[in-house]
């Protein structure tokens, strides 16, 4: 045994690039492991802090929702402000009859998008009929003007009647039953700008031909002409 120890003690070991980096007499566990543990602890603290922040944000959100929850007085004030805004918005009246070219189904496409889409086509898409439509028209100077579109003007109050700026005429005089100005089309069209939307291959309705109405004729097939034709509505209204 003593001879073996003596031989080993005199042995010269071959050094390589790998073995030369080894420190046989040094134990790194005591210095490296605590460093790893410290880094891990900091990472865990960071995760905990982020989770706490998320919980805090959620709590603030819940508190905010609680503050903005249902309040009868706030709801009443909101409705009054909404009604006031609506009463100041210009109104466009369209026929309530389903065989009119413009209805509550396609009024937005016609007046805002300036393109004709049939009522039947829109119904097939499953779109629900609205009782009132609000559109915004971009005027020169980047000014956006809101307009209300309705087909039941008898619900308007006196102040709202003053905001009626245009009406689409279908033809029969009974369309104006219950209107101010004695429901007289001649008087009405002296106060409100009147329009009639028709196909260009259809004869003009008798009453419409006798009234002071702006005619907008659309082609049944040439949809690329829609914009130029429908733009006449706004050009006339802006005069």
UniProtKB/TrEMBL annotation:
Residues 87-239 form the Cell division control protein 73 C-terminal domain. GO terms for biological process: positive regulation of transcription elongation by RNA polymerase II; transcription elongation by RNA polymerase II. GO terms for molecular function: RNA polymerase II complex binding. Keywords: Nucleus, Transcription, Transcription regulation. The keyword Electron transport does not apply. The keyword Transcription applies. Its main location: nucleus. It comes from Soboliphyme baturini. InterPro entries: Cdc73/Parafibromin, CDC73_C, CDC73_C_sf, Cdc73_N. One of its GO terms (cellular component) is Cdc73/Paf1 complex. Belongs to the CDC73 family. This is CDC73_C domain-containing protein. Pfam families: CDC73_C (PF05179), CDC73_N (PF16050). It is found in: Nucleus. Residues 1-77 form the Paf1 complex subunit Cdc73 N-terminal domain.
């Amino acid at each position: 045994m003593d001879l073996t120890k003596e031989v080993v003690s005199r042995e010269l070991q071959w050094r390589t690039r790998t073995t030369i980096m080894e420190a046989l007499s040094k134990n790194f566990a005591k210095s490296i492991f605590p460093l790893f543990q410290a880094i891990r602890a900091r990472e865990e603290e960071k995760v905990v802090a982020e989770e706490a922040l998320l919980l805090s944000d959620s709590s603030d959100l819940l508190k905010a929702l609680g503050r903005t929850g249902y309040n009868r007085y706030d709801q009443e004030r909101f409705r009054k402000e909404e009604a006031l805004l609506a009463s100041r918005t210009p109104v466009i009246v369209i026929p309530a009859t389903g065989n009119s070219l413009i209805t509550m189904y396609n009024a937005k496409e016609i007046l805002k998008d300036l393109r004709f889409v049939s009522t039947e086509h829109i119904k097939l898409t499953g779109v629900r009929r609205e009782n009132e439509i609000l559109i915004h028209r971009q005027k020169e100077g980047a000014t956006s003007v809101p307009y209300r579109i309705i087909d039941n003007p008898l619900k308007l109050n006196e102040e709202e009647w003053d905001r009626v700026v245009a009406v689409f005429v279908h033809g029969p005089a009974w369309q104006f039953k219950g209107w101010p100005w004695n429901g007289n089309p001649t008087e009405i069209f002296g106060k409100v700008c009147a329009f009639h939307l028709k196909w260009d291959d259809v004869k003009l309705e008798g009453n419409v031909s006798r009234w002071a109405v702006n005619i907008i004729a659309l082609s049944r097939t040439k949809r690329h002409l829609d914009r130029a034709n429908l733009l006449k509505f706004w050009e006339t209204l802006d005069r």
